[in-house]
Amino acid sequence: MKIQFKNQKFQEDAAKSVVEVFNGQPYKNGLQFLLDINLDKKQVSPEEVADKIDPYRAFRNYELEYYMDDKKILDNIAKVQRENDIKESDKLIGKYNLNIEMETGVGKTYTYIKTMYELNKAYGWTKFIIVVPSIAIREGVYKSFQMTEDHFYSEYNKKINYFIYNSKNLSEIANYARSTFISVMIINSQAFNAKGQDVRKIRSESEYFNSRVPLEVIAKTNPILIIDEPQSVEGKKTKEGIKEFNPLFILRYSATHKDKYNLIYRLDAIDAYNKRLVKKIEVKGVKKVGEEASNSYLYLEEIRLSKNAPDAFVQIDYKNKSGVKKRVIKVNEGDNLFAKSNYLEEYRRGFTVKTIDGRDGTIEFLNGIKINRGEVIGDLSEDIVRRIQIRETILSHINKEKELFYRGIKVLSLFFIDQVKKYKQYDESNNPIDGDYAKIFEEEYKDIIENLQFKFGEDEYADYLSNIQTEKTHAGYFSIDKKGKFVDAIKDNKTEKENSSDVSAYELIMKNKELLLNRDPNISPVRFIFSHSALREGWDNPNVFQICTLKQSNAKDRKRQEIGRGMRLCVNDSGIRMDEDKLGKEVQEINTLTVIASESYEEFADKIQKEYAEASADRPEKVTQKLFDGRKVIDNDGNSFYIDDDVSRIIYNNLLREGYIDDNANITEKYYDAKKNGEIKFSEKIENISSSIEEILDNLFNPDVVKPVDARKNNINLELDKEKFNSKEFRNLWEKINSKSFYTVNFDTKEIIKNSVDEINSKLMINKIYFEVKKGSMENISSKDELLQGQAFREESSSINDGKNFVKFNVSYDLVGKIVDETGLTRRAIVEILKSIRLDKFEMFKYNPEKFIAKVSQIINNQKASEIIQHISYNKLDNTFDTDIFTVNSIRGNLNENAIKVKKNLYDYLVYDSKNEKEFAESLDTSEEVFMYVKLPSGFYISTPVGKYNPDWAIVFNNKNVKHIYFVAETKGNVESMELRNIEKAKIDCAKRHFKAISNGLIKYDVVNSYEKLMEIVKN
């Protein structure tokens, strides 16, 4: 199985941002230079040089043209920063140093590989060097080049020559210099900034390198340097060493930049969460409560809610023939732990269960002791904490695995430990034997599997587990010595940091990255990985869903680093990324990373939020009028402009008037509720830029966005009501809605051409580029405040110059081809449109080619969507959806926050997304007209030309007083006042045609905003 890659807009935007910094530089092939710079020392004659010119010829990146001076580069940077909503730089910091901020897990390495291709495409540059801080990251980068090679070849029709610098194989440097193709050297910083014989080789003449100095040859290529995780690389010595490479410019990629160079692109934790590009984080904490002197050990593992009274699962001491051991038991109200423990004295006094409260997750005993989920009382050694963590990891793994098994997604769990001997030891004959953690894992795993209860429809998963042997489902990934034994990471005596320099550990992890994703237990039974805590960077696996650190946390430990190995979105068994395109609103229900911490949830959440706050220090936190001043926005017609003082005042007053911000300039819960329900109100003057306003507000630092979820609060796992599921009424409903369909569109291309031409002629507007030249002087200085406020200069005159003589585009455009790619129409149709539009509109291409292509494509697509809606037809297929979509679900909720107990739903509880959904479900549940209903799972969808569409509800009414017994509903807030976007309109119209086609009109589909609106439609 190979992981599949695809182009994503944010990665394209990051690459484009780098390319546009050098806008104005022409495309040129590499300059030639003489590889052997020591020819003069050898007294070689000119004739001999001529004879040997090919072996000595090499190529370097073209330097920037003379007119690409500091002012031009700074102007380009400022333009890119404006486009990316980043504060403009007033000066260059270094020449040239560009920061690209990307959150862990979004594909940083993929992005800078793509950037190399784009720089080559735009300017012809071919020489790149990637500097990394450690062997871990070096091996990870190399693996990424291997995995993405075919993907990028399919896009650019060329491959990159890449290699890892090795002082014992200097011939690769000569090949690097000679190559005319894109060439990349990957080097860890220790290779040129540490001490030792190997390090000196890069700066010394070598007889094995034709008496050349490797670093001098590299410097001659004028390479572009890419620094991966610069905060871990750039000490004083490394910065000096980097200068010796003679870089054309330097690109720095990190989620946590320390040195503030010119920032040109940002996708930080807030962006990644808002755009659903990484996993959601939830935490299972272990909290010690009670007095140390207490001898009564008790750990509350879980409370399960059911139709009857809730059950509690507690771990206690249990006496058997061989002594006292820890055991998990189920208890109900009235149960006595003294008897349940086989009469251990520690439970004699009052340990009878008084209450089990499923709402707040507590259990209380007659003696007054009350504990919450995840809390433990009694004598608590480190061994007990580690056992609890391991057990909780296995439990979380099994729950996640059951959810995702039928989706074809393999689940992995990762344990970080600080000493190899805790997992694996060796006897006197060097035979491996299990360490303490391996023994604990196998004991707890066997206990959990033996007591696992399978639900309706989980037979296949039960068979899967039965085919996996306990001892084969866990494995260690550590450094290996020459005898083949696992060893701890080597410690750097100078820094005391554990950074394994043993490549073997990374080779194991990297080579098995895709093998680990194979779900066949006969090929890849490993699901639980034990690794050294020193290997926490440089590698990840997208299907890590649980991370457990079995070591004591200290002040230096960074939580973001701890979770970084599991933040990437998962893939299925076909290697397809399970992102928002595939899963829709379920993307972060499926993609959830559970951290099993050795501290309480509150402690962990507080630490990680502080880390995110530090990393997001540049983000505004308050809503002021100034927040909107000068911000670029795009209206509903695709036109972009910058907000002036008048508009920013209108926006601010609107937010204040509607109660979306409070007196302290913070966003209120009312705003977030309105956004979730689609009910945000904007005045008529700013309604056409509402999406841009929401994006600006999303850009604020909101600690709640990145606050991890308390995993123990998700106390609801939906249980299918078998009686309703097997009822005649549901079966009748399902038979009427489960058919799949296909659509055909018989639109008139001539009509699209005509309408597109009309719209372009009436609406296309692209501004010319002008330069404003102002002249002023400073006669005198009245005060320091006048200087600080920039009021000492007095403007004397200004003039506007047309930029056509100064602005030149060095990139050639396939205008027709680009629009064909964006619209899907034929070249012939696009040529007809461009020939038919007014000359003044076509001339706008010269003002800004990319904007012209984007806007024209958008206009054509809007006309195409309108035409599709008018001419689409649906036909019923013989294929149907399987009922498995109801028996396999991944929905969990919190009874206090987003879940309610219901009677008429297909499940025992309903997890809702908004206040509107909650109220709608409550009305359905109490209505005498409703027999049953179900919130349709994401596996039920309708194919449309604008993407998959998932309806919200299916409802069965009692056969009295209603015209439509079977109804499929989409709930939207405030339907009457809302203007649905074209795509939403298209999907809804397609859904109406689909249901009409598959049910002969027996299924009614409509959009409603309340139960009252539903009944109005049903009865009339």
What is the element layout, followed by pairings?
Blueprint: H1 9-21, E1 31-34, H2 46-51, H3 53-56, E2 57-60, H4 70-83, E3 97-102, H5 108-123, E4 127-132, H6 135-156, E5 161-164, H7 171-178, E6 183-188, H8 190-193, H9 197-200, H10 214-220, E7 224-228, H11 236-243, E8 250-254, E9 262-267, H12 269-274, E10 280-284, E11 287-288, E12 298-304, E13 311-320, E14 323-331, H13 337-340, E15 353-357, E16 362-365, E17 370-372, E18 375-377, H14 382-404, E19 412-417, E20 424-426, E21 432-434, H15 436-450, H16 459-466, E22 474-477, E23 479-480, E24 486-487, H17 503-511, E25 528-532, E26 544-550, H18 559-563, H19 580-583, H20 587-590, E27 592-596, H21 601-615, E28 632-634, E29 640-642, H22 645-657, H23 669-677, H24 690-698, E30 709-710, E31 716-717, H25 722-725, H26 728-737, E32 739-745, H27 749-763, E33 770-777, H28 784-788, E34 794-802, H29 815-823, H30 827-836, H31 839-842, H32 844-847, H33 849-871, E35 872-880, H34 884-887, E36 892-893, E37 899-901, E38 909-911, H35 915-926, E39 930-935, E40 953-957, E41 966-971, H36 982-999, E42 1003-1008, H37 1011-1019
